[in-house]
Amino acid sequence: KYFKIETFDIHYLYFSCIFILDMDRCKIILFLYTIVAEVADLVLDWDFFVEIEKTDAVQDWIKVGVFIFAIIGSIFFIMVFLEKICSFCCEDDDEEEDDTFAVGLSLSSTIIEDLPQLFFAIAVALTVEELLSPVQIGKAVYAIVEPCVKIVLNGFEIHKMKNDKRKRKIRHRRCKIVEIVICCFTIICSSFLLINLIIPIEDKIHDFM
After folding, report:
1. What pTM did the predictor assign?
2. Got the DSSP string for 189-207?
3. C-alpha angle 25/154/93, rounded to 5°?
4. 44 class by beta-carbon count within 10 Å (0-12 exposed, 13-18 middle, 19+ buried)
5. Given CB 3.0 to 4.6 Å as the disulfide criterion, which of 85, 155, 182, 183 pairs with 147?
6. Rounded CA separation 4/14 (Å)
7. Mean pLDDT calculated for residue range 142-166
């Protein structure tokens, strides 16, 4: 009895390892990057809300806005997580349908959640003269790095689809081009945010020296 259970477990583990090793390494790396990036984004959003909730220097409407978009970000996190798990583990017969959902979800997340969160972070940086928490710098750095990676990945996707004349693929290319433009705008705004966060720190260092 126990031998059968142990044999089954070994066989299950063996075939699981074979399944993972047979998969495209790029797909595995992209999957792991996406999960780690989404978790980091979610943690930074809620940590940022906790930090500004502690101070009276931030106006109430900003706190409410950050809280609302942290909830929206949590919903997008669940949707992106489930979509990545399904696309990674399941072989969908309708691959184009899956691509359409992924492209739409990525663009929606950027417009509906990422940009408003960035604007609220800038509002906090301009309202409060001193740095509230290192989380602010973490959010600013993340908001620069993550769009840069998106631009590279979208560039590869556009290059792969450049000879595909199907209407759905043309729409995908347009969506990815729009997302690249938004990412460029996000990088500019995030750089402005990071500069405004670093300047008070430099002033304190000069005063200390």
Report:
1. 0.75
2. HHHHHHHHHHHHHHHHHHH
3. 60
4. buried
5. 183
6. 15
7. 85
CB atoms within 10 A of CB 160: 11
- Secondary structure of residue 165 in the 3-state scheme: coil
Strands (E), the chain: none
Tokens linked to 41: 């984004």
- Residue 103 banded pLDDT, cuts 50, 70, 90: confident
Report the C-alpha gap between 70 and 45 in whole angstroms.
6
Residues 6+ apart with CB under 8 A from 17: none
pLDDT confidence of residue 169:
74
Amino acid at 35: I
Six-digit token string for 33? 């990057």
Contact 186, 118 (CB under 8 A): yes
Asked if 109 and 146 touch (Cβ cutoff 8 Å), the reply is: no
How many Å apart are CA 158 and CA 175, to the nearest integer?
A: 10
Q: What are 80-90's pLDDT values in tens digits?
A: 888 888 877 76
Alpha helices in 94-133 (DSSP H): 95-109, 115-127
What are the tens digits of pLDDT across the range 129-152?
A: 777 788 889 989 999 999 999 999
